[in-house]
Amino acid sequence: MPGIDLHTHSTASDGTLAPTELIQAAKDADLEAIALTDHDTTGGLKEAAAAADVAGVEFIPGCELSVVSQNGNMHILGYWIPIGPSKLSETLRFLRDRRHERNHLIMAKLKVLGMDISYDDVLAMSGGDAVGRPHIAQVMHAKGYVRELSDAFKDYLGSEGKAYVPKEKLGPRRAIELLKSVGATVVLAHPFLLGLKGADLRGVLKQLKEFGLDGIEAIYTLHRPDQTRLYLDIARDMDFLVTGGSDFHGAVKPNVRLGSGFGELFVPASLLSTMKEHRVKLGLPV
User: Fold this and answer.
1) Choosing a second label site near 23 at 20 to 30 A (CA), which of 16, 59, 164, 193?
2) Which residues pair with 229 in a beta bridge?
3) Domains in the chain, ordered, with CATH?
4) Secondary structure of 3-28 in the HEC alphabet?
5) Nearest to 66 by CA among 39, 35, 95, 97
6) pLDDT digits over 101-136, tens only?
7) pTM assigned to the model
């Protein structure tokens, strides 16, 4: 039975496959549908949609917003977002401008540490409009400053690294309301990363639901079976939609395969059908 994957990344953000290549990979993996959810950008959606039409793979345009709250960092997924210009794309462009400033600060710190990396190098490596730390890491690796990409994050670019610079992010209410304003279905990505359990987790989800959250990503590569069961129970109890995805990035996460994660992941197409039914009830397009 063909599955789906509702959490993937391309070269438009920090993945290593171009949008067209990602769609072909989905076809090769016999996926029935795929959502492209690049970090804080809609830049790859037009290419992916065109490729999906040719490949005969159902495509859901999406994105993954980086959010900061009193509970720490979280990621919010939006599905069926506009492919063309919108209030969302304008806001993301503003955030990308701030990210460009951050990139320059990171590279300045790396230069002090003896690493000669130009912005042109990083831009060429990105192939997209959402240049970020993974692209800086790839240049560091290409120039021999680190032995592995993971070393770049561990020693320099991660939150404990020597060249780390915090990233400007939206708050959860603003992120959810922004996505809802363009007709998106809004989902909390990989809830286990919140590090919350029991009443604390349900309390946060209750607040997010009040902001407009539609669902939670219960099926995810890094979720243990007991965590998946917990999130499915919570979704039932709190009337949330259920989604799932691999969080595929390509070579950056070589052990995570499209559609199957570490090999055991399966996201049934029935979840997408339920999401569509929910949208139809709200008068939203699918």
Assistant:
1) 193
2) none
3) 4-86+169-281 (3.20.20.140), 92-157 (1.10.150.650)
4) EEECCECCCCCCCCCCHHHHHHHHHH
5) 39
6) 999 999 999 999 999 999 899 988 887 556 889 899
7) 0.84
